[in-house]
Amino acid sequence: MMSELSPMTLEKFMEGLVKRNPKEPEFHQAVLEVAEVVIPYINLHPKYIRSRILERMTEPDRTLIFRVCWEDDEHHIQVNRGYRVQFNNAIGPYKGGLRFHPSVNLSILKFLGFEQTFKNSLTQLPMGAAKGGANFDPKGKSEWEIMRFCQSFMTELSKHIGEDIDVPAGDIGVGAREISFMFGQYKRLKNEFTGTLTGKGLEFGGSLIRKEATGYGCVYFMEEMLKNNNDSIKGKRCLVSGSGNVALYATEKLIAVGAKVVTLSDSSGFIYVPDGIDQEQLEFVIELKVFRRGRLAKAAEHFKWEYHPDKKPWGVPADLAFPCATQNEIDVGQADLMIKNGIRAVAEGANMPTLSTAIKKFQNAGVLFAPGKASNAGGVAVSGLEMTQNSLRMAWGKDDIDLMLRSIMGDIHQQCLRYGEEAGNIDYVKGANISGFKKVADAMLAYGVV
Ligand code: NDP
Ligand code: 2IT
Fold this sequence. Notes:
The chain is built from 17 helices and 14 strands. The chain is α/β, with parallel strands linked by helices.
């Protein structure tokens, strides 16, 4: 006989999760953010308790860890650790980026893979979730060293991916150059030309707007949030952190829609440009940071911008904030300062850049807050469109893809409105997590116990 179901409690669930996954603080943090809003929803829908959906969803399908050996320019042998966490393929092939950064470890990749499950679900495209990468630091490496590393990494990874199995893309430290080296090696090993990676060069199956998509999509999401509050983006002063792929294409779109981007940052400090960065200056920074992986201090020197070494931009007064560098960039103290300085809305371009305690500060102060799984979903959405174009063996035009991106971001915003209503306000964290959860959970239920 089936016993009476008791409701789930957050404390007990988290205790079990931490016990099963010791010493993985970023993973615990990402799960807690979801569990806080999803457990009350699950308790209203006991079918999810009975089938232990949240326990199943927080356990990756599989985790691959492998050695990556390569030879540096001095002919020394280097050894790195490579990973692919295939988190969930309930609604499509595993899909998600690769991160090359010395801080990469299992906790970070599990947090990113878990977040990807909800994000990919929100896009409404058929994509499961994965994340991977290596503790390899591309900074200061020569082109040939990067190529040798990418080829060695792909030699192992190629055994586990495929256009209908798992489709990696870029993330921190992995841009067009790295994707091209990895795609070249994949094609050579498999002797096939398929869309197994996204973010490829336009000459070999890449999609227009993919490189811009995360940043553009984040701005589109911010526009939706402001519109829903009878406000608009034009003329707003914006803090952007980071100066990589996401930050710089968010900046490009912000300039195009008439906002002023007054800060950018990298891991060494931030620049402050009181009148806002212009398109010509931005192109210089894109060349410096995205294509040459240089230092932002060089741009500050070149344009005589105010430069603040070893500092984050959050103390600068502004209307809107776009954290686009990395996880845990905004803590409670910084959130307090931003609120005091008049910030009205935050849209995360990075994954989990805001600590949960800081998110609560923003929400309690009435600051509109969009979690990355909603506001940075544009990148993986256009990756999904790249997969479709590759399967169809055709390429769509720029305007068509931009329209689809806008429409996907608008639809994600609608999902947040639908599931995020909280005492007359919209809780975007609740909306994104419940909507993302429901689709994957229902697919898992339909499969039975697998
Ligand atoms: P890039 O490698 O292009 O740029 C990363 C930027 O963040 C650089 O300015 C880098 O500075 C800074 N940064 C990275 N790590 C740190 C750190 N530990 N401390 C301070 N600054 C840091 O990466 P992306 O722009 O692609 O990714 C940025 C964020 O957006 C990540 O959270 C990523 O997961 C997320 N994201 C990316 C998507 C994509 O399509 N690329 C899609 C959705 C989310 P420096 O140059 O000094 O290292
Ligand atoms: O975090 C992310 O969504 C990404 N790094 C992009 C993933 C993808 O497959 O395009």
